[in-house]
């Protein structure tokens, strides 16, 4: 990874600490840093500093051209280098611009369609300038929508995804002159190499079995395969859809939601001690220990907290399904925390929008944001080292084959 030496004017640094000009100072800071990086990239590609004479020089500078970039702290102007042969290139802002452009576009749509609040109008002016038209919105849609659509419809058949996390969040969308609640379904997969991927998003009318069935059917049509474990919360429609479309796949009930369900049914005075007991059960090293701790807890509290114990006993097997896996994989696969962090990123943007002007706008913003996160995951560290998992799977296969031979 390239490293750059950046010089920042002390006046810019001073302005960052002034409460009345933080956004403007941050915009100046960002503009200065990015422009210095662009010049450094130009030097790398030419293999020579400005005015430097060297046998290794690959070309010559030809001035700069301005490029406006819209950010959360305002619009900045980048001075993009020109080369005489026209070969300067940078992909530095490609991922960043997708989600920023989607945010700006959604805000613009809201104002154009007359459904914005005063706050959203102010934000739009800060991000986009005071003047824009419906044709500007249309042009941006034409450029951004195909990119998001192609990513969300990409084939999945070239990879196996042993672990899949699914979750949904509710957003508000304006449809037929009414504000309606819609479910955004998101799936995150961990592929055979151990990298996370956002497998796709879909807007449904609700979190019903029909919506989840449509979502899973769509993922499988795109080639989702090799699934061994699905992690989700205990939503009834979701569970029925999982059992229908992923028969034979183990379902892991999110332990965070499971604990919450138990505590909601527990008398307040007993919550601390029952919480400690449930955590001990879920953290057990093996199923035998977990069963022993379960029986002790049921015996101690079945009369004091009968509703809580009924939930604990009924959900026990699904909540400890992860114990069948090697120990190193259990911590990250026992909850839906991974996909819920994505939801938090979406929520951060959604709070600005509040009400999406239409479904296309919601898919555009959320899709562009998830594309950016997906790119970071692909170029970052592995989420899990899958070596032990595949060794474990191979041993499980041998054990199964041996049992079949003995029966025959």
TrEMBL record:
<keyword id="KW-0233">DNA recombination</keyword>
<keyword id="KW-0814">Transposable element</keyword>
<dbReference type="GO" id="GO:0004803">
    <property type="term" value="F:transposase activity"/>
</dbReference>
<dbReference type="InterPro" id="IPR001207">
    <property type="entry name" value="Transposase_mutator"/>
</dbReference>
<keyword id="KW-0815">Transposition</keyword>
<dbReference type="Pfam" id="PF00872">
    <property type="entry name" value="Transposase_mut"/>
</dbReference>
<comment type="similarity">
    <text>Belongs to the transposase mutator family.</text>
</comment>
<dbReference type="GO" id="GO:0006313">
    <property type="term" value="P:DNA transposition"/>
</dbReference>
<comment type="function">
    <text>Required for the transposition of the insertion element.</text>
</comment>
<dbReference type="GO" id="GO:0003677">
    <property type="term" value="F:DNA binding"/>
</dbReference>
<keyword id="KW-0238">DNA-binding</keyword>
<protein>
    <recommendedName>
        <fullName>Mutator family transposase</fullName>
    </recommendedName>
</protein>
